[in-house]
Design the sequence.
């Protein structure tokens, strides 16, 4: 009895998809679609744009699935495709250049009992910091790959990643009193 697509590993599905297996590629889309859209939203794409870019990324992946060799995960491979498509779209629209100069307003830490969403915390970063952190930690790009993709010097990318991570840590860290205890939000 043949294995069902749902029971197959991504590498098997990609190989069958490369041979024309639409159902197998559909299973890959089902497995990884939401993660790709989430990455794009974390990079700054509005939900509808994230959906459009994710669809384009999966179309590109379908056309190039024969190039996927299983060196790394399929999810990481398609996220890299999506991130590059998003960056190209941003570059074409020439919006990100103006946003590079904007700095977010500083914000304090999290009060005890307050829930913070990573996506919300990422919105506190400047656009370029959000892109660099998302590409590095969400899409698995190396610093040199980010530098090339964003056409920025390598040192600048490293600075944006470090500064962005520092801001995220500060934003997500609980606020404590002078004794190191969680601050009371009712005060």
Sequence:
């Amino acid at each position: 009895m043949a294995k069902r697509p749902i029971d197959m590993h991504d590498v098997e599905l990609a190989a069958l998809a490369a041979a024309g297996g639409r159902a197998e590629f559909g299973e890959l889309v089902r497995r990884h679609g939401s993660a790709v859209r989430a990455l794009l939203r974390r990079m700054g794409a509005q939900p509808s744009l994230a959906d459009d870019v994710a669809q384009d990324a999966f179309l590109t992946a379908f056309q190039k699935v024969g190039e996927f060799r299983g060196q790394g995960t399929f999810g990481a491979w398609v996220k890299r495709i999506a991130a590059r498509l998003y960056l190209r779209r941003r570059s074409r629209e020439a919006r990100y250049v103006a946003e590079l100069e904007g700095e977010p307003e500083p914000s304090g830490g999290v009060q005890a009992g307050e829930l913070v969403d990573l996506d919300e915390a990422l919105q506190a970063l400047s656009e370029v910091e959000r892109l660099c952190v998302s590409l590095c930690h969400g899409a698995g790009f190396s610093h040199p790959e980010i530098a090339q993709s964003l056409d920025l010097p390598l040192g600048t990318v490293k600075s944006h990643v470090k500064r962005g991570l520092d801001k995220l840590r500060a934003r997500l860290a609980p606020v404590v009193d002078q004794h190191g205890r969680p601050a009371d939000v009712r005060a």
